[in-house]
Amino acid sequence: MKNIGFIGVGYMGYGIAKNILKHKNKLFVIANKNRKPIDKIISDGAEELKSFKDFSSKNLDAMFMCVTNTPIAKLISEKISDILDSKTLIIDITTHNKTGSIEIEKIFKAKNINYVECPVMGGPVQAEEGILGGIVGASDENFKIAEPYFNFFC
């Protein structure tokens, strides 16, 4: 069992988060604008946190980020990079602009936090079925660490 944080339980994130729970992991989520997927994932077994700072006490093995775009991902990354410790692996499912993942990786690298990008192909149905396609960008070492997590949803 792993302790996993998730930011962006929404249109795509809900199905991915659901599969993380289905594989017997502890999942910690934070609310976004749309309560419906948050309420659903909490009823599935996730624990809702009130702030980003609350992630610091959860001994996270990984943090998923599945947000709308690069500017939002960058703001969140700047906040959580000060909160997470270096053993937490960031798995970024955000679809970025052409330099977004490079910018985000720099934020985490400055704090010695491992980063993997994995934009996905498919939609909410495939996310819930755990059959998304993923395009992974990572060092060989980070890929090996992240691969078991990809098996939850890809």
Layout: helices, strands, pairs:
Elements: E1 3-7, H1 13-22, E2 26-30, H2 35-43, E3 47-49, E4 62-65, H3 70-80, E5 89-92, H4 100-109, E6 115-117, E7 120-121, H5 124-129, E8 133-134, H6 140-153
Parallel strand pairs: 1-2, 1-4, 2-3, 4-5, 5-6
Antiparallel strand pairs: 7-8
Helix pairs in contact: 3-4
Description:
Helix 3 packs parallel to helix 4 (100-109). A 6-stranded parallel sheet has the order 3-2-1-4-5-6, with helices on both faces. It is globular, with a radius of gyration of 14 Å. It is α/β, with parallel strands linked by helices. It has helices spanning 13-22, 35-43, 70-80, 100-109, 124-129, 140-153; strands at 3-7, 26-30, 47-49, 62-65, 89-92, 115-117, 120-121, 133-134. The model has no long low-confidence stretch (mean pLDDT 94). Helices cover 39% and strands 18% of the residues.
Low-confidence stretches: none
Please tally the β strands and state the result: 8
Average pLDDT value? 94
General form:
globular
Main sheet makeup: 6 strands, parallel
* Spatial strand arrangement across the major sheet: 3-2-1-4-5-6
N-to-C terminal Cα separation, in Å?
19 Å
- How many helices? The count is 6
| Helix/strand/pairing category | alpha/beta
Radius of gyration: 14 Å
Write a compact overview of the structure shown.
This protein is of the alpha/beta class and 154 residues long. The protein has helices spanning 13-22, 35-43, 70-80, 100-109, 124-129, 140-153; strands spanning 3-7, 26-30, 47-49, 62-65, 89-92, 115-117, 120-121, 133-134.
